[in-house]
Amino acid sequence: MKKYEKILIAVFGSCTILSLAFLLISFFMLGKGIGYLDYLEEVLPYYLMFGGVFGVIGVLVPWRLRKRREAGKAPISKLYKVSFWLSFLPLAVLLIVGIAGAVGGGFDWSVLWGTVVLYGILLGCILIPIFPFMLFWQVLYGIMAGKYKKATDTQRS
User: Fold this and answer.
1) What's the pLDDT at 98?
2) Which has the closest alpha carbon to 47: 22, 26, 30, 66?
3) How confident is the model at residue 8 (pLDDT cuts 50, 70, 90)?
4) Would you say the C-alpha torsion 94, 97, 99, 102 has a positive or negative sign?
5) pTM of the full structure
6) Nearest-CA neighbor of 144 among 79, 83, 75?
7) Which residue among 59, 70, 85, 134 has the highest number of C-beta atoms inside a 10 angstrom radius?
8) How far apart are CA 44 and CA 150, in angstroms?
9) How many CA atoms are closer than 13 Å to the CA of 155, on its beta-carbon side?
C-alpha cells in the first residue's frame, strides 16, 4: 500500500469513527434521536460518516485490484462481477413492489395502510440506507473496469 493511500485511509477512517462517536453520544447521552436533524451540526456527522465510508471503500478497492494485477491475476474477478450485478437487487425489488402495487389496483383503507407499512419497512429500514452504497459500488465498478480494460488493451497493442 502506498503512503498516500495509508494517509487517506487514516483520514477517512478517523472521520468515520469521530462522526459515529458523535452520533452515539448525541443519541445516548443527549437523548436526541434520528428525528432531530434540524441543524447543520446535527446533520453533518451523517454526511461525514458516509463520506468516510465511501472514501475508505474508494481507496481499498483500487488497492485490491492493483494487488491482484501485480500477482498476475485478472484485476476484476468473477466475485467482483457478481457483486456488481447483485448491487442492482434493491432497485429490482423496489421496481417489482411498485409494479405489483400498480397492477393490484384497488385502493381502500386496508390497502393504504398495508402499503404504508410495507413501504415504511421496505424503504425506511432496508433500501434507503443501501441505495447510496449500491450506487457508489456501481460507479466504482464502472470506473475500475474501464480503467483496467483500457490498460489491458494498450498492453496488447
Assistant:
1) 64
2) 22
3) very high
4) negative
5) 0.61
6) 75
7) 59
8) 38
9) 7
